[in-house]
Amino acid sequence: MELVNTTVLRKDNRLLAITHLSQLLHYITGFGGFLVPLIIWLTSRKSVEGMDEHGRSIINLQLSLLLYIILSIPAILLLGLGLLTLLGVGILGFVLPIANAVKAANGEPPSYFLTIKFL
After folding, report:
1. How far apart are CA 106 and CA 25, in angstroms?
2. Which of 54, 87, 92, 102 has the most CB atoms less than 10 A away?
3. Whole-angstrom distance between the N-terminal and C-terminal Cα of the chain?
4. What's residue 21's pLDDT?
């Protein structure tokens, strides 16, 4: 008897968009923008089509932004260049999730630039 894997991935563009938008919880709670997308990704990556790709890109973005923030703190002492970096990280952390949520709702792959591939 041969066993066949019959797991069917469902297409849920709304959940993908919500996962991207959940990153904005950083601006409300301070920490939820990393935990909520991580939980959504880990629980639904095997059942939703495209979730693994979107989830990896979200986690890579969050880790990259955290690294940029950590590196910009000592740069504040260098003529305030770290303040510009912090401002840029804040803008990117707000704009990129919204833009990629729209892409996810349309069924397009995510595109986060300036991210380091951790996963």
Report:
1. 22
2. 54
3. 37
4. 95
Alpha helix stretches (DSSP H) within the chain: 13-21, 32-44, 51-75, 81-105
Q: What's the CA gap between 94 and 117, in Å, rounded?
A: 20
CA-based torsion, 23, 26, 31, 32: positive or negative? negative
Average pLDDT of every residue of the chain: 90
CA separation for the pair 11, 19 (Å, rounded): 14
Distance CA 72, CA 22 (A): 24
Q: What is the predicted pLDDT for the residue at 114?
A: 85
CA-CA distance, 27 to 65, in Å (whole number)? 14
User: Could you tell me what percent of the chain has a pLDDT over 90?
Assistant: 67
Q: Could you tell me the residue ranges of all domains in the chain?
A: 13-105
Does 6 have pLDDT greater than 80? no
Residue type, 117: K
